Amino acid sequence: MTDICPNEKAIVQGETWRITVLTSSLIRLEYSSVGQFTDQATQMVANRNFITSTFRVDESDSLVVIVTETLRLTYNKKAFSSTGLKIDVCGNNSAYSAVWHYGDEPKDLGGTARTLDVADGAIDLEYGILSKEGWSILSDKASMLMADDGFITERSDPTAEDLYFFGYGRDYITCLKDFYKLTGSVPLLPRYALGNWWSRYYRYTQKSYLELMDRFIKENIPFTVSVIDMDWHITDVDPKYGTGWTGYTWNKDLFPNPKLFLQELKNRGLKTTLNVHPADGVRGFEDCYKAFAEFMNVDTINEDPVTFQPANRKFMEGYFNLVHHPLEDEGVDFWWIDWQQGNNCGVEGLDPLWMLNHFHYLDNCRNGNRGLIFSRYAGPGSHRYPVGFSGDTIVSWKSLDFQPYFTATASNIGYGWWSHDIGGHMCGTKDDEMALRWLQFGTFSPILRLHSTNSEFNSKEPWQYNLIVENIMKDFLRLRHKLIPYTYTMNRRANVDGEPILEPMYYYHPTIEDAYNVPNQYYFGSELIACPITTPINRQTGQACFSAWLPNGTWIDFFTGMVYEGGRRLDLYRSLDTIPILAKAGGIVPMDKRDSGNKYDNPDTLEIRVFGGENGTFSLWEDDGKESTYNEQHWAETKINFVWGNNAKLIINSPNGNIDVLPQSRAYKICIYGLSSNVNTMVTSDGIFLDNIKTNYHNKNSFLEIDIPNMPIDSTITITLNNATLSDNQVISRIFDFLNFAQIEFNTKTQIMSVIRELDNNRSTSWILSQLVSMSLNSEILGVLTEILTAY
């Protein structure tokens, strides 16, 4: 274990108290009546060895004052109290000041929650570390310590206070980065985890499950992870053993050849996770019982159970070596730890869920693998054990409407890799539109996993819905898979730079109040803003509305190519086949261009979407996926630069780093959105003009498509766009297309179009709008027209 202790110069200490200045904005506060302090790592804290900040100490017999660049701490050297310990937040990281007294409850922006089990809409969240008030507090008092052998041990003084004060003002990004430095970085996910996951609580057979996977392949619906719920194991057990909820023995009636079954899934490009409910331990009917019971010195003659003891070193050794590893030898890749039995494991203050998450994750990394588990959240520091399973939600619009906010806000406690039961889990009502909107949100969420409860009527295959919804679902599942080059780059960003893939709008706009008033809107990686639709469409418009706020600048719709002026609130309307996903001008989004299959390796064909209007740059990061922790020697970086102007240029530079992880050659489909149609194109490779280039301008969505054949991977490709200008949004044709499908009177459509066509006569937008308002149109109809007319 590395030295986690802070520099001694960072510590100010008395007999019963210790204050550690970790940064100018992060302070550790300890009080122990017996003078025993903690230097070891804890369940929450992995490192206290920060670069020492400059601070001043003024101390007398009864008072100590510590002043950093941003904080002023005043303490009376007694047991912590509201009158004896306070911290003022000031400095240049905020336009205001704030004060904390010991015992004050944080007024933060929220964190996350252990589970969404049986949630039907919003639930209360636990604390996060970010606050408009400028400060927040995390208590580490209840954490166990990490012993030198990697197991847990109790504190020498369990009554001691151990607090971390975060006083970063509204510098949210720095606060989060320091939180990761304190508690540990977010691990790299395996690349396959960023594809689509198939899951269903259902009594499949080996034959029926493989037939389903084959149908997905036939219909070109790519999945990369196969989630097998609890019916993989024996569930019908003799009542003398209890229930069949916990199990580790394959049900051979359903899966007669488990090893072959798992190999067949691998042959189809799928990784596999099995569901486990560990609470009942290992009982006499299990295949692994005899070996485990003998290992634990349990009476096998009377079939005494091997009870679940996560705080017992020997139990955990056998739990992995004798129970899980044999199943992994058959082909299981990682485990779905479905713990629902509370937080009591026989040791006061020790959460069995944390123990399961911690040791399952470490065990999954044991052979140098990149680790992965699938489990519920167990408190601050749980980001070290991805991926999160949010639990069994109710199928309802309210549940859907809460999840975008819930997912983005989890980043406020560093928890960036939630996976939800997309479409909802149980109860509720079948609603094709709601299921589609949930899937569209899932496409732009950390992990896309379809799941449902054990009902013959509740399943998430696209063909279970009407034909329109089915086809759109398929498109979004394919899109999610195509986004892997982008999301994998964001996976690296989360690990190396401490920036989660989903970030609330206020991260980058902390002083703008509107950024706090769009809870369901968030950044999806560095290039995109997502606005998931979570309410039903209006019957007349055929569209649903998202009330958005766009930051200053120019923004372009990822799907439609519509150009928007930012710096304002506006309503965005979308039909069933799309949701508002907005790219910043100059944004660059690399995607997998392979048109079929579920391969997730570094592709030999890329689609690169570029959004006009500003300069932009993007580094595409790719590796071999073999190392469990980040090692730059395994990575290749391809820098993509976009220079906007009358003679715009897109440059795909020769990659740097380990190019052996890349294919030898690569073809490209370049799509430049928000571009007018009168552009001329020239393409060179290493300065040599290419004359076999196909281009196609898509008038409806205002983008230029450029197809570049295979080029050596170390080529530098330059695309020059002469006469490049932003699209005028083709307002008249867009409004005609909208009206053509609107469910309103034909005469009203004609009257509206007669007004809109006055744009050809140089009528102003304000004139057009005034005429439309005077027609007393339905508010939703007027809303759609207003969006198109005033977008840019």
Main features:
792 residues; alpha+beta; 7-stranded antiparallel beta sheet; 6-stranded parallel beta sheet; 14 helices; 22% helix; globular
Structure description:
- With 792 residues, this protein is of the alpha+beta class.
- The protein has 14 helices and 40 strands.
- Strands 31, 32, 33, 34, 36, 37 and 40 form a 7-stranded antiparallel β-sheet that branches. Strands 17-16-15-14-13-20 form a 6-stranded parallel β-sheet. Strands 21-22-23-28-25-26 form a 6-stranded antiparallel β-sheet, covered by helices on one side.
- α4 packs antiparallel against α5, α8 runs parallel beside α9 and α13 packs antiparallel against α14.
- The mean pLDDT is 96.
Short description:
The protein is built from 14 helices and 40 strands. It is an alpha+beta fold and 792 residues long.
Q: What is the total tally of β strands?
A: 40
Q: What's the overall geometry? A: globular
Radius of gyration: 28 Å
Flag low-confidence runs.
none
| Distance, first to last CA | 56 Å
Average pLDDT, to the nearest integer? 96
Percent range of helical residues: 10-25%
The chain-level structural class is: alpha+beta
Task: Figure out the total of helices.
Answer: 14
- Beta percentage is 15-25%
| Biggest sheet statistics | 7 strands, antiparallel
